[in-house]
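Subject: complex prediction, re-run

Hi both,

The earlier run crashed halfway through, so I resubmitted it with identical inputs.
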Amino acid sequence: MGNAVDSLRQIYAELQAHRALPALAGTPLAWLEREREAALADWSARELPTRKDEAWKYTSLRDVAESEILDAAGADARTLSALEAAGLRPRSSGSRTAANLVFVNGRFVPQWSVFPETPGVHVLPLSAALRAEGAPVRSALTGLREIFASAAHKGAETPFAAMNASLFRDAALIVAEGSVELEAPVFLNFIHTGAFPGSGRLTASFPRVIVLAGARSSLRVIESHGGADGAGYLTAGVTDLHLGEGARLSHVRMQREGDESFHFGTTRSWQSRGSRLESLQISLGAKLSRQDLKVRLAEAGAEATVDGLYLTRGRQHADHHTAIEHAVGDTTSSQLYKGILGGESRAVFNGRVWIAKDAQRSSSSQLNNNLLLSPRAEVDTKPELEIFADDVKAGHGATIGRLDPEHLFYFKSRAIPEQMAVAMLAEGFAQDVVTRLSSEALREALLPPVRAAVRGLKVEAT
Amino acid sequence: MAQALLEIKNLSVAVEGKKVLKGLDLTIRPGEVHAIMGPNGSGKSTLSKVVAGHPAYEVTGGTLRYEVNFQMRDLLEMEPDVRAKEGVFLAFQYPIEVPGVSNSAFLRASFNSILKHQGAQELDEAQFAQFLEKKLEVVKMDPRFLDRPVNVGFSGGEKKRNEILQMAVLSPRLAFLDETDSGLDIDALRIVAEGVNRLRTKENGIVLVTHYQRLLDHIVPDFVHVLADGRIVETGDKSLARRLEERGYDWLVK
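This time it finished cleanly. Structure:
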């Protein structure tokens, strides 16, 4: 039996000794190096949370805490050819792609990536950005510190977000200059490899994404995380989104990790005046996954649509924690999370909405709908509304249901076999989180994998 | 006499332990239209549901045999979707609303499932749209209803029309129409009845389950049966329906 925190502490010491972490001193990100140390002090001083912690009440980290953790392999030729052989190399998504960056175990893979020049939009790995001479990227990096300082979200970070701050090796950086509009999506593909099945060990990767959408810019990003089934690994990712005044950003985080993996993702969004975020989190894979999404509506007129979809089967566990902070008045948030659960799987949805004392005329809605395909599946859903202003609109609701036998009979009476009826009904239940995305390119990119995943679901007798 | 399409003998059915049908006999031959009338609770809807294969209805006795490739097969051995593939259709008294599934996708899945069963090439979206266009005329349905979720937000009349549209698409060999006339105004009744008449052929059998004579003014049946207390107590031609309208059921039900 290993100890996750001990082994991660050891990994950090070795990486420092070999100067294997990004060298940030003397760059505009020198301050991130100090954060690295501060984060280390935070996560390495304590054990992973247990179910006695309110934030982890329904999600047990025991399997992770008792694992020995190894540093994941680099993106070397052997790793890449193994991924290629396993069919895990991300395919280029066709002409409607602005750029496609591929990272293996958190390291950038230039030969699998395409990032053509697009005027006003800079898509590149942080490792390259630190050396970049171009004024826009440098000034964006220089401005990062101020943004991060002002973007402090309410509520504690997970230990996994702190680990990422200490241990990230590279990052995907997207900078959109002011007023630039890019309809074609930017794809960020993170692939993870793992330790041998049954070895009781996990390899760890720390993917990082930074998106800076300049004032009145318009941008779409699909961030995808995947790996091989059977491989034991842990992903602790952090994504930071910053929306300038009037910016429009669609961000999709697609989790399709291998079935023996543990995935932890933190997404933090900070929004200026009149900006609009459209966020969609899709969780399809991993043995256990936890997504934390924090949105800070920092200035008037900021709006966020925060949606999610989770499909779980077997003994999978998927946990989604959202925290929306209406820091000022005249801000709007709407959440729709949907889940379909089969087997003995479990899902958790915890939706926190915090409306500040003077945040009058704020509006917030939250809905969590679940469809159970098996009598042994279980959902824990909990809204957490903390409202300190008096002139606000805030609603929430949750449903947990099963397929209606009368629906199934209607389909069968029309010659549609049961398995297909289930697929069509499940698809009908799930797809609106995708179809209501504002961008056609995003809908086109996401509907096929979501449909394929839904069609793989099976109903079990109650 | 032509071979029977459906042959029901001494059928007994229970729902949640309660006996509803108690020894019912009925034979339908190709080209025939039968009307089944009877007081509330006599078992009319139960008969339709049993033929379609609803799982809540338990057959406790008797046989239901249906002709497939000139052989009489036990209908109870066939799953509901297999019955539908072999040409059995039920127009629901209360059509089911299905949020999230578009009417056209539902119809196409249904039609393709039958094509697949017959070993024919399935239709793609464009081919099916073309095929469907002609079927819409049968019930004078606005094409906009195709993009809507199945029956969601449809009026009572629109739902019934949608059932007949499904019938037009599937061309069943044996169709049970369960109170398709209830809740329809005169105009809708006429459209639905005309639709059914257009689908009436020498090969298929149609069973109209109804409370009212007025549907039978539009779709003229070959036989009228009176179902009471789980049995057919009287069979006649269309004039029987008129007598029932005038005299009620009391003279038949002791």
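The radius of gyration of chain B is 18 Å.

- K.
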